[in-house]
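Journal club prep, notes for RB
We'll compare a predicted complex against what the paper describes. Inputs for the 2-acetamido-2-deoxy-beta-D-glucopyranose case:
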Amino acid sequence: MARPQQLAQIFQMILTLLSLVVACTAGIDHDDDDLALILKTQRTALTSFFTATNGPQWSDLCTNGWTWDNQTTCEWFGITCTNNLVTSINLANCGLSGTLPSELGQVTSLQDLDVSSNAISGTIPDNGLLNLTNLQLVYLYSNNFSGTLPVGWSTMSSLTDVRLFNNSFTGTLPTSWSMLSYLSTLWLSGNRLSGTLPDAYSALTQLSLFDVGQNGNIVGTLPSSWSSITNLGTVGLQGNQFVGTLPGSWGNLSSLSSLQVDGNHLTGSLPNQWGAQMSNLWQFTASINNLTGTLPESWSQLLFLGSFNVSHNQLSGNLPSTWPAAMNSSMIADALDIRWNCINITIANVTDGYFWANQWIAPQRQGQC
Ligand SMILES: *[C@@H]1O[C@H](CO)[C@@H](O)[C@H](O)[C@H]1NC(C)=O
Ligand SMILES: *[C@@H]1O[C@H](CO)[C@@H](O)[C@H](O)[C@H]1NC(C)=O
Ligand SMILES: *[C@@H]1O[C@H](CO)[C@@H](O)[C@H](O)[C@H]1NC(C)=O
Ligand SMILES: *[C@@H]1O[C@H](CO)[C@@H](O)[C@H](O)[C@H]1NC(C)=O
Ligand SMILES: *[C@@H]1O[C@H](CO)[C@@H](O)[C@H](O)[C@H]1NC(C)=O
Ligand SMILES: *[C@@H]1O[C@H](CO)[C@@H](O)[C@H](O)[C@H]1NC(C)=O
Ligand SMILES: *[C@@H]1O[C@H](CO)[C@@H](O)[C@H](O)[C@H]1NC(C)=O
Ligand SMILES: *[C@@H]1O[C@H](CO)[C@@H](O)[C@H](O)[C@H]1NC(C)=O
Ligand SMILES: *[C@@H]1O[C@H](CO)[C@@H](O)[C@H](O)[C@H]1NC(C)=O
Ligand SMILES: *[C@@H]1O[C@H](CO)[C@@H](O)[C@H](O)[C@H]1NC(C)=O
């Protein structure tokens, strides 16, 4: 069955050898010409980038080299090269404004692009960056970008780390991004995204951080199919319009250490399965929802839980039996906030309250009992 493929590989090798022979006999000038052209292209592209982002107004240090004629592109501030090819642009916090030009897409050797914490506005050039097939890391966070997330990025298969938070992006999460099989960080909080969480992202098995917190308008339920994203460690969904229940199947996310779902419209109870399965859960915050039922006794097994905030829900019953004793140990060391529920606490003389940095603060009975 593999035979045609093997033949094709052998044929490919012969071709490669032949082209090497041709290249050698034809002399090295040819390669030099190619390289010279690439270097010229990347210099021109970066000069366009400098102009489009109001280069003359960048902070002083960051402009070093960019306007001088005594240095190669690779010596300009923020540029890193491998064999004269630009692999990294790091101009975080450099006072960039203006827009991101599509010419940047001609720096095809680029692996890392970090222009975070600037004041760049406008959209991500629609198809302009698609030739950046080596791109792994894109930090555009804390700028003034607007427009939609580029659907076409699904073909930039090297992407591992995409941080676009704190901008003004609108539109939905592109379903096509489920093809980015190496993606490990997708950080989109603090934008104005809407739509739902795509079921298809269940294919992003390398994803370890997913954050769409504080977008305001993401709707729908938490997809139970995401139980297959077994590398998930941090999930931020707070400050949106999610409905439905916390999926029991997410108990399979045994790497999950932080889950924040505060400020949605979630209903139902805290899943019993999570207590037995999410052995790495350190932070769980679900304040300001409509959760009901009791705190499952199984949550006693979450030995690393350090921060638990379910204030402003309709939970009732008792704390899991081991928690009161654990409160003076490492468990729940940071915060236990269960105010505005009907939870029956029987620790010392406290009838309701919350725990913060190993201290009870303002014990009080509040809630909707
Ligand atoms: C290159 O040119 C710039 C601006 O003219 C100057 O400040 C810098 O000292 C020069 N560097 C070298 C190494 O000559
Ligand atoms: C970015 O956008 C915000 C809101 O539109 C605006 O208040 C702010 O001045 C802008 N910042 C810059 C540096 O353009
Ligand atoms: C991408 O590369 C192809 C082939 O080199 C070229 O024809 C095309 O213009 C490039 N696209 C962009 C947007 O730069
Ligand atoms: C995003 O912006 C908000 C509001 O300005 C700020 O509180 C938050 O720290 C920022 N997030 C990050 C990760 O910088
Ligand atoms: C959870 O994981 C188990 C074992 O890996 C698997 O059999 C089961 O189908 C998973 N459940 C869900 C809901 O994904
Ligand atoms: C909880 O449910 C009540 C009654 O349906 C509703 O008025 C309230 O807005 C809900 N709260 C949240 C945070 O969804
Ligand atoms: C925690 O320890 C302090 C001092 O060791 C003690 O006063 C307090 O009662 C303990 N609290 C609980 C909940 O065991
Ligand atoms: C718990 O969440 C509520 C509402 O989001 C917030 O006001 C409170 O400060 C949080 N508690 C702690 C201990 O962080
Ligand atoms: C609160 O818990 C204590 C001890 O578990 C129990 O004796 C008491 O009846 C409970 N109260 C309510 C209202 O559930
Ligand atoms: C509960 O309060 C009473 C009266 O204030 C006090 O005598 C008693 O020691 C307290 N119990 C605990 C366990 O702190």
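Talking point for the session: DSSP finds four helices and 24 strands in the chain.
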